[in-house]
Specification:
Mean pLDDT of chain B: 88
Helix content of chain B: over 70%
CATH topology of chain B: Four Helix Bundle (Hemerythrin (Met), subunit A)
Shape of chain B: elongated
Distance between the termini of chain B: 25 Å
Low-confidence stretches of chain A: none
Helix content of chain A: 55-70%
Shape of chain A: extended
Largest interface: A-B, 30 and 30 residues
Strand content of chain B: under 5%
CATH class of chain B: Mainly Alpha
Oligomer: heterodimer
Number of strands of chain B: 0
Number of helices of chain B: 5
Radius of gyration of chain A: 40 Å
Radius of gyration of chain B: 19 Å
Number of helices of chain A: 21
Largest sheet of chain B: none
CATH architecture of chain B: Up-down Bundle
Chain lengths: 652, 158
């Protein structure tokens, strides 16, 4: 178990069978297709024959149709958002389609989708026109509103042979001045303030042609701003009334258009199915870009789990006539994509491993190693049996409701962590902060934190030693036995020696072990350095790493601190609630305080326990043996959101 | 004023400091993350869950401060209504037991807030890397946990 064995696979087949082969590969979903540049093909003779393969035209047409379907779906989503419950989203409920019937259904979806697209496009254009019209009307309304008191029809605001009329705004402060100047310069002039708003005066000006030069000049000097309402008939008030009517009409038209669009809502599911279908087809065409071709054949390169290889060969041989498959183990330094394979008990804890990253293909899958530690640490960080019961119950309910996906793994982790919390809570804590059912069975960590601290350190030393053992095993398996002894063995000697100093009567053995370990480290840790002096100095300096071991062990004190935090806050909640007892209303408030307080404590400490238990794995444990930098395996498979394709190929 | 102060007052000053400083730190830290998270959520409302998780991280210091404050009140008999008669020397011990979590809580919550805010930016671009963003922020919290531990140990040693 751990990191799955991968094989590099080359597949050669006739062009005529390309679509069929790709469809089968997609349905099986076990092969990661690598980008095969023609020049990378192994062997000179091949390389000269092949070129990159492309199906640009088909790809573009699919992308265009995808864009159409997305437009329809986005449009519907914008005006009629589909509500998907959290549970449905987690469970990924999909419609099951048989692969044989897929193309038939797709043709039907295609027809529906085109009709919907045409209808929605039309609605969209209509809505856009209406929106523009509404904007125009609103602007006009804003312009006209100040003139509502003007009883002159707007079409009469114009120049006649003898009289000029104008509408416009003046700064309110200038109004009196302008009036005085006008009266002085042009006697046959009439200025009336119709309205004023925010420091602006809306004025009506009427003057005889004799003032045609003086009046505009004076007005301009006073910052007169002319307003025109061409194409409007009747008074401002009449126009405003008409605008209101037109706005109502536009709003009604908008509603009608949307109601038409709502007719298409019943096709939403089919649109989603078609989106999936088109995506699958596009994925297939995109893979083609990773292929190489000769005149009549194509070549495909990829990675596959060794365990899946016979199945793939069998299925392809049964369905196609010209397929030839070559597979080989990865070469010495070749990086291959990583699949984590674990027994069902450990598999959910992949979740924790993957949160950190993918291990190197040559490294170790840490999942089975970290699982027991994670569960124990989680329980110790919570240390309340009552909370443990709640978490475990949440896990069980979650497992009942959630059927697939990473959320289900998290529920397994909850269940295991919850049970561990019950155990440790009963041993060294309580039930919701109370000493019920004989808790604490072992000792009270709140009364004797030093004892708990020593246990926490002991757990830390065990995990760190375990991590070192993994590294030792890894080095030995790689044939680097000396490295294993120098880099891990001597540290064991030194640390165990130092630890033994604490035990009474072991001083002698402790001293010799520690000295042997330290001596070994000084002699060997500089072995990659060129000169004797440098070897010695790096060896001596390596002893400084003891601080790393020390701080790593100290870091496990968080197990105590977080456990105490849960316990003390639970105690604080109980104490506060206890103060309220003794009065009828007090009892009601007490129940509320207890419920809210313990819920808060549970949530905040579950988060803390999960994160800190993970951290101890990532920083303190991984540090000893983990090698990261791997790349997760991404097979070419059926990636769907709304449909689930069932094919006889998938039945093993 | 010092002359009239009993050991008990000093212990209560300590409890107040633990809650005060660690709480201020957490408030600032959570505020920093919240500002960044709000910016990210304007672009992508689906990121509310993961950003909220990151925002919660600098909140623990305030809880640790409350915890020490509560423990001091409990051990001096303030909770339960029977305040103990405490000498000045003991009062100083209680006072200083609050100092590690008060000051480390204050500073580490702010630093953790900054780390978590950057983590929010990280998941804005790469939502799948939430785990790493959390780990960066949790690295800071180690020191708050150590301070809490020291506060508890002093307190239980009195």
């Amino acid at each position: 178990m751990g990191i799955a064995k991968m094989n590099k696979l080359y597949l050669v087949a006739h062009q005529a069978e390309k679509d069929k082969v790709l469809a089968i590969l997609q349905q099986l979903g076990v092969l990661e297709v690598s980008d095969l540049q023609a020049k990378d093909v192994e062997g000179q003779a091949w390389a000269e024959m092949v070129e990159g393969d492309q199906e640009q035209e088909a790809l573009q047409s699919l992308e265009a149709r995808l864009a159409d379907v997305r437009f329809s779906l986005d449009f519907l989503q914008r005006y009629y958002p589909a509500k998907k419950s959290l549970l449905a989203a987690l469970n990924d409920s999909k419609m099951v389609v048989n692969s044989a019937e897929l193309s038939g259904s797709a043709a039907e979806w295609d027809k529906v989708s085109s009709n919907v697209y045409v209808a929605l496009r039309k609605t969209d254009e209509k809505l856009m026109l209406l929106r523009n019209e509404e904007t125009r009307l609103q602007n006009l309304k804003i312009q006209l509103t100040p003139w509502v008191k003007l009883d002159v029809p707007l079409e009469e605001i114009k120049a006649t042979p003898l009289v000029r009329t104008e509408l416009g705004t003046l700064p309110a402060a200038e109004l009196a001045q302008a009036g005085a100047e006008l009266a002085a310069a042009a006697p046959a002039c009439y200025l009336q303030e119709i309205n004023s708003d925010r420091g602006e005066s809306f004025v009506f000006v009427l003057y005889h042609v004799s003032g045609a030069e003086d009046v505009p000049a004076i007005l301009k000097q006073r910052n007169f701003n002319r307003q025109n309402f061409p194409q409007l008939q009747g008074t401002a008030a009449e126009n405003l009334k008409r605008i209101e009517q037109e706005l109502v009409k536009a709003e009604n038209e908008r509603k009608a258009a949307l109601a038409d669009a709502a007719e298409q809502l019943k096709y939403r599911d089919q649109l989603n199915y078609f989106l999936d279908y088109l995506t699958l087809e596009r994925d297939k065409k995109q893979v083609v870009a990773n292929l190489a071709r000769t005149g009549n054949a194509f070549i495909l390169e990829g990675w596959i789990c060794q365990a899946d290889l016979p199945e793939l060969k069998k299925k392809l041989a049964a369905a196609c006539e010209t397929v030839e498959i070559l597979a080989r183990e990865p070469e010495e330094k070749e990086a291959f994509p990583v699949v984590l394979e674990n027994k069902p008990l450990f598999a959910p804890f992949d979740f924790i491993t993957k949160l950190y990253g993918t291990p190197s293909p040559r490294g170790v899958d840490p999942t089975p190693m970290l699982t027991p530690f994670f569960i124990v640490f989680f329980g110790l960080c919570m240390t309340d049996a009552g909370y443990g019961v709640v978490i475990a119950l949440l896990g069980i309910i979650g497992l009942k409701l959630i059927k697939t996906g990473p959320a289900r793994n998290l529920m397994w982790i909850f269940l295991a962590g919850g049970l561990s919390t019950v155990l440790f809570g009963w041993l060294v804590g309580g039930w919701f902060g109370l000493p019920l059912l004989g808790a604490p069975l072992f000792f009270d960590s709140l009364a004797d934190p030093m004892r708990m601290l020593i246990y926490a350190f002991a757990l830390g030393i065990i995990q760190i030693f375990f991590g070192m053992a993994i590294q030792f095993y890894r080095l030995v398996r790689q044939g680097k036995i000396l490295d294993a002894i120098f880099d891990v063995g001597f540290w064991y000697l030194l640390i165990i020696g130092l630890l033994l100093f604490i035990a009474p009567g072991m001083g002698g053995i402790a001293q010799s072990m520690a000295l042997a370990g330290a001596g070994g480290l000084i002699l060997t840790q500089g072995r990659s350095q060129p000169t004797i002096i440098k070897k010695f100095l790096s060896g001596l300096l390596s002893l400084y790493n003891i601080t790393g071991y020390l701080s790593d062990v100290l870091s496990y004190s968080r197990l105590l601190a977080l456990g105490l935090a849960t316990a003390v806050i639970a105690l604080a909640i109980n104490t506060m609630a206890g103060l309220l007892a003794g009065h009828p209303i007090g009892y009601v408030v007490m129940v509320i305080v207890l419920l809210a307080g313990h819920t808060f404590n549970l949530i905040i400490n579950t988060l803390g326990s999960y994160i800190h238990s993970s951290r101890l794995q990532y920083i303190e444990f991984y540090n000893r043996f983990y090698e990261g930098g791997g790349r997760a395996f991404v097979p070419f498979r059926l990636k769907t959101r709304s449909i689930q394709i069932q094919s006889e190929l998938q039945n093993k | 004023m010092i002359e009239t102060m009993s050991g008990l007052s000093l212990a209560i000053v300590g409890a107040a400091f633990a809650v005060l400083l660690a709480g201020i730190g957490s408030a600032i830290g959570i505020g920093i993350v919240g500002q960044t998270a709000a910016g990210v959520v304007t672009e992508d409302p689906d990121k509310f869950g993961p950003t909220l998780l990151l925002q919660a991280l600098p909140g623990t210091q305030g809880i640790y401060g409350l915890l020490i404050g509560f423990l001091i009140l409990q051990r001096t008999g303030m909770i339960g209504g029977n305040p103990m008669d405490i000498t000045m020397a003991e009062g100083w011990l209680y006072f200083f037991s609050a100092m590690p979590i008060a000051f480390v809580g204050l500073m580490s919550a702010i630093a953790q807030g900054k780390a978590a805010a950057s983590g929010v930016l990280l998941i804005a671009k790469r939502p799948e890397e939430l785990g790493k963003a959390i780990i960066y922020a949790v690295m800071v919290e180690t020191y708050a946990v150590l301070a809490l531990l020291m506060s508890i140990m002093i307190l239980f040693g009195i």
